[in-house]
Amino acid sequence: MADSGRVGYNRPRYFKEVNPMTVTVIRHKRRKRAAFFVTPDGIELRIPARLPNRVVETILSNHAGWIAERLAALPKRDVLPDDRLLLHGETFPLIKCDSETTFRFDGERFYCPLAWDESSLREAYVAWLRERALTYVTTRAPHYERMLGVKANRIRIGHQKTRWGSCSSTGTISINVRLMLAPKEVMDYVIAHEWAHLVHFDHSKAFWSTLASVYPDVTGAMAWLKQYGHTLQIKKTN
Fold first, then answer.
1. How does strand 42-48 pair with strand 22-28?
2. Which of 81, 130, 137, 138 has the most beta carbons within 10 angstroms of its beta carbon?
3. Alpha helices per DSSP H over the chain
4. pLDDT truncated to tens, each residue of the chain (238 aa)?
5. Is 1 helix (H, G, I), strand (E, B) or coil?
6. Nearest to 126 by CA among 87, 173, 73, 166
7. Measured in whole angstroms, how far is the alpha carbon of residue 188 from the centre of its chain?
8. How far apart are CA 70 and CA 78, in angstroms?
9. Which residue from 48, 47, 1 is spatially nearest to 25, judged by alpha carbons?
10. Burial class (CB in 10 A: 0-12, 13-18, 19+), 63
């Protein structure tokens, strides 16, 4: 992995902290062994579908110290105040007024109809972020395609729970819409990462070397996602 020795991305500018995260046990039919994963909702223990509960309890007990350390090390998830929304690591005022008929952003403020409830606002916000994300990715992609000498067959915007991006063997690249809440530099890292997979469809040394050649601060972006990725939630509270 390339090491630039620099972490130059700011903490998300959120406002109000919520309760600590928890551990969730999830059974998978195809999983062959238990493994812990840190997700936006806390720590998940993913286990084989038929693993006995007593074994699960033993695993949790044996890793209690590790779980406590990981949860304590993670920053508490933050929630936006009622009158602001997040975009590219910054918050912008949300104005609700009778004169508005739709959801929009003028570069400094978000606007929506006064009569909208939380559900209507959230739906419009997510749809707007998806549209903007697709525009952002398709605008940035040519830069990396020129540098790498490759081209994606298809670009899609997803809303994955644990993956920031993916590249299929057929050249379809998916980018998580939640990255629109992160600083642009972090979103650019994920874009560069997935396009580098069009050259090396693995995480070999050659892959990391190729990625570092088009995105120098790999370590900084990875560190930011590890520390703050779980806070990137598309959720509006009233």
1. parallel
2. 137
3. 53-62, 64-73, 118-148, 184-196, 205-214, 218-228
4. 333 333 345 555 443 333 345 788 889 888 999 998 876 567 888 999 999 999 989 998 898 888 888 877 765 555 555 688 999 999 999 999 999 999 999 999 999 999 998 888 989 999 999 999 999 999 999 999 999 999 999 999 998 877 899 999 999 999 999 999 999 999 999 999 999 999 999 999 999 999 999 999 999 999 999 888 888 887 533 3
5. coil
6. 87
7. 12
8. 17
9. 47
10. middle
Give all domains of the chain, ordered by start, each with its CATH number: 20-75 (no CATH), 79-231 (3.30.2010.10)
118-148 and 205-214 helices cross at what angle (nearest 10)? 100
Q: Which two tokens stand for residue 122?
A: 């959230």
User: If you write DSSP's letter for every residue of 16-68 in order, what string do you get?
Assistant: EE-PPPEEEEEEESS--S-EEEEETTEEEEEEETT--HHHHHHHHHHTHHHHH
